[in-house]
Design a protein that fits this description.
Blueprint lengths: L32 H4 L30 H16 L1 H7 L1 H10 L6 H9 L1 H7 L3 H7 L4 H10 L16 H16 L9 H9 L4 H15 L9 H17 L1 H9 L9 H5 L8 H14 L2 H15 L2 H4 L5 H9 L8 H10 L4 H19 L13 H7 L22 H21 L61 H17 L1
Helix pairs in contact: 3-4, 4-15, 5-15, 6-11, 8-9, 9-10, 9-11, 10-11, 12-13, 12-16, 12-20, 15-16, 15-19, 16-19
Amino acid sequence: MAKIENGRQPVDTRSIRTISSSHIDDESSLGSDSEINGFTSERQTDKYGFIGGAQQYSEASAQDVPPEVLRQREVKWLDMLNHWDKWMIKRFDKVRLRCQKGVPPALRGRAWLYLSGGKVKKEQNQGKFQELDSQPGDPKWLDVIEKDLHRQFPFHEMFVSRGGHGQQDLFRVLKAYTLYRPEEGYCQAQAPIAAVLLMHMPAEDAFWGLVQICEKYLPGYYSPGLEAIQLDGEILFALLRRVSPLAFRHLEKHKIDPILYMTEWFMCAFSRTLPWASVLRVWDMFLCDGVKIIFRVGLVLLKCMLGTREKLKACQGQYETMELLRAIVPRYMQEGYLVREILEVPVTARDVEREHHTQLKRWKKNRGELNFKPPPRMHGARLIMLAEPPRRQDLQQNPTIVLEVPQPTPQLKKGKEEKKSMKKKSMKKSQPILEIPNPYPLPNNPPPPPSDPPAPPPVRDETPETVPQTETDSPHQQQAPPTDLPPAKESPLQRSTQSLSSTEQDTYL
């Protein structure tokens, strides 16, 4: 039996899923959500914020990009985001290629919001989220949402605490959606979608991202009856016949309905299935190219697990097949391998739409009309933007965190002015004093160097650019060198000549 220290078991003997929230949640003085649940520095988080679990980062499941490559990609993405409409209309193929390479982590939240059209939706509905957030909500949905909060990524630092900041924002986003679309209400699969968005953006941005995914990318998935997901299951099964005939025949032989294995895959956009590094890469491509990426991931996993006769020998029946699909081999979900296989699957958006039309006709023939008719599906970010053209101000990157800089007090201004004046004085003092040679040297003075002839005596009708009379008095009136006199105004030409002569004298000295 494990030893109990200070009333708590050691960290390695505890499970995050079984933490009691009776007295731990009351410790509001602790800082982070992980500390509230008793996880302090003893529990290490990975670079994605996971404390443990199957989705935690490992070198075997992820590919690390060199820092210098990452900086170059960030510069390119910043340029794209600053001119988003031009890139999406004229150079969308380049945007797609950069999404396939992976969005830089520092810009992923902003890029997802732009790709999904959530940025435009947010700007065109200013204050809508605040209005929905302030409303109490429908009690029947609030109870269900509260029960699901602790089930969303319980191994992630943001959601590990009951009543923590992450769960509070998740509740706000899901409640706001039930008010925004009361005819749909709340579906449990929406919670992980909203949670993934909250890991990368504020609550308001996550809400509009959820709206776009539910209405444009996966319309009808979360409506009552789940007819849209059943229809897409038939589409997946039909596409599997072309991609992997062996896997198709095996599933057809054992009468394994697609709804049995692909529901969580599609409704959660693989956010609860893949390692986290792979989830992020799939979402980068999904928000750029639409639902065809979700179909490709499902086809890759089915082909890898059931695509050869040797693999089918281990699953002779329905139960064994389902267990195999629930425990996918980790190397097939590894980031580099999975992304490479996704890009090689020959399934386009046109293929999905063609098969959708075929399966919809078959559905109506066998089951009648759909009870819930979702809006048409948009295949990718470009079509979403063309369907709702943005204004230029809608795409401006507004800061999400605004700091108020206090205005300096008059004393500070005075002190700054004094510093500036002192600095100017010191600069004047540091300048070398120009020595003006005497045009009428005394007999005891040595003659000037031959390269520096004396200045000619002034002429009365000379132009204003000549030396003033105070500097050219007669030798009888001049008893001392003129260096004690205050400096007079000089022309630029004379000043340049005098500075030249002074430097030459310095060289001789």
